[in-house]
Specification:
- This protein is an alpha/beta fold and 380 residues long.
- The protein folds into two domains: 10-164, Rossmann fold, CATH 3.40.50.1970; 169-374, Dehydroquinate synthase-like, alpha domain.
- 51% of the residues lie in helices and 11% in strands.
- The protein has 13 helices and eight strands.
- Strands 1-8-5-4-2-3 form a six-stranded parallel β-sheet, sandwiched between helices. Strands 6-7 form a two-stranded antiparallel sheet.
- Strand 6 and strand 7 (143-148) form a beta hairpin.
- It is globular and about 65 Å long.
- The termini are far apart.
- 51% of the residues are buried.
- Residues 173-375 form the Fe-containing alcohol dehydrogenase-like C-terminal domain.
- This is Alcohol dehydrogenase.
- Keywords: Oxidoreductase.
- GO terms for molecular function: alcohol dehydrogenase (NAD+) activity; metal ion binding.
- Residues 9-161 form the Alcohol dehydrogenase iron-type/glycerol dehydrogenase GldA domain.
């Protein structure tokens, strides 16, 4: 079976990487960000760096968490009005996902347009700066749509760890665990290759070692750089290998209850590993060997394959406890009865999610529902 690996994004990484923005050959730039990037002055700093090189610049700062179809439409109109030759996404996953969709739609609408897409992440989590993925929300239907298109792969990613130093503890925790989940799911994906495994296994070891320390010491630039690079490496991996049902379930959960994406992954991942590895089954299934290999890469080893994966799950739960993430959905502001009532619809959306296609074990709707129920006290 033929497989391929592509890497379409140029990456510049390191302290003061942001200054390289002045070396780009651009005439007119649209900066896409959220209002906080204006409040903290970072958007204006980039604007000034560009203006110093006589580059015209307009800021679109209406990005919200879980960007909606309406927000993307406004951003597209801003691009059409400006006719830029560069679009800069500044911020976390929401800004980058929105910018990727806006850029793709702009290129489609303006068929002669040539525009560079440059991503400058200010959080370490989504890896969106190097992927063909974007997630857009539809509040009316309580849905999140995972979009995948090679035309959305950014041209340039600028990874400056200085930009992440001010990220609060809770955001560092959530986005960092998103990185861990990206690695875990890319490694277990049915589309994984030796090349994606190399990126995801390295990133997995980096984030496993450095996430708790960076949460506790957010001003440590060396740690911030490691976690920032791990996030990008994980993005390189899952952009090619795709993901699995942990993300499918998290997308539906976030769309329904607006829980942060990384937090949703953290709640679900131990249960998803147990399910995907078939730990509840009498016989061993092929994906058990995959999770045993992942466990060994993190230093877990026991007498049998199942015991080794059990040990890894226990280790993940210990790390979640260190990160102060409760395993119960009711501890995250969600009513148990509302959650139970929403499970059938969420499970149906998760089943239709593109990430489900590459999950190592093919689930039924009932199995997805049961995974959600594991988040309640007693597990139902």
């Amino acid at each position: 079976m033929l497989k391929q690996f592509k890497m379409g994004t140029k990456i510049i990484t390191g302290i003061d990487a942001l200054s390289t923005i002045q070396t780009l050959s651009l005439k007119s730039v649209l900066i896409i960000c959220d209002p906080f990037m204006l409040e903290n002055g970072l958007a204006q700093k980039i604007e000034q760096l560009l203006k110093d090189k006589n580059v015209g610049c307009t800021i679109f700062s209406e990005i919200i968490p879980d960007p909606t179809i309406d927000v993307v439409t406004k951003g597209l109109l801003a691009a059409i009005n400006l006719s830029p030759d560069g679009i800069i996404a500044l911020g976390g996953g929401s800004a980058m996902d929105a910018a990727k969709v806006i850029s793709h739609m702009y290129r489609t609408a303006e068929k002669d347009a040539s525009v560079q897409l440059i991503c400058i992440p200010t959080t370490s989590g989504t890896g969106s700066e190097v992927t063909s993925f974007a997630v857009i929300s539809d509040p009316q239907n309580h849905s999140k749509y995972a979009l995948v298109d090679e035309q959305m792969v950014p041209d340039l990613a600028i990874l400056d760890p200085v930009l992440t130093v001010s990220v609060p503890k809770d955001v560092t925790t959530d986005t960092g665990f998103d990185v861990f989940t990206h690695c875990m799911e890319a490694l277990a994906s049915t589309d994984a290759t030796d090349f994606t495994d190399a990126a995801s296994e390295k990133a997995l070891q980096m984030i496993w070692k450095d996430l708790v320390p960076v949460v506790n010491d957010g001003e440590n630039l060396a740690l911030r750089e490691q976690v920032h690079n791990a996030s990008c490496l994980a993005g390189i991996a899952f952009s090619e290998a795709s993901l699995g049902i942990c993300h499918s379930l998290a997308h539906a959960l976030g769309g329904q209850f607006h829980i942060p994406h990384g937090r949703a992954n953290a709640l679900l991942l131990p249960h998803v590993i147990r399910y995907n590895a078939g730990l509840e089954l009498e016989n061993e299934i092929p994906s058990l060997v995959t999770y045993q290999r992942i466990a060994k890469s993190l230093g877990f080893q026991a007498g049998t394959a199942k015991a080794t994966v059990h040990a890894m799950i226990n280790g993940v739960n210990r790390q979640l406890k260190q990160l102060a993430i409760s395993p119960l959905i009711t501890d995250h502001g969600i009513d148990s009865e509302e959650f139970l009532a929403a499970i059938p619809e969420m499970a149906a959306k998760a089943m239709d999610d593109k990430c489900t296609i590459t999950n190592p074990r093919k689930p039924s709707i009932q199995e997805l529902e049961q995974l959600y129920k594991r988040l309640l006290r007693g597990g139902y």
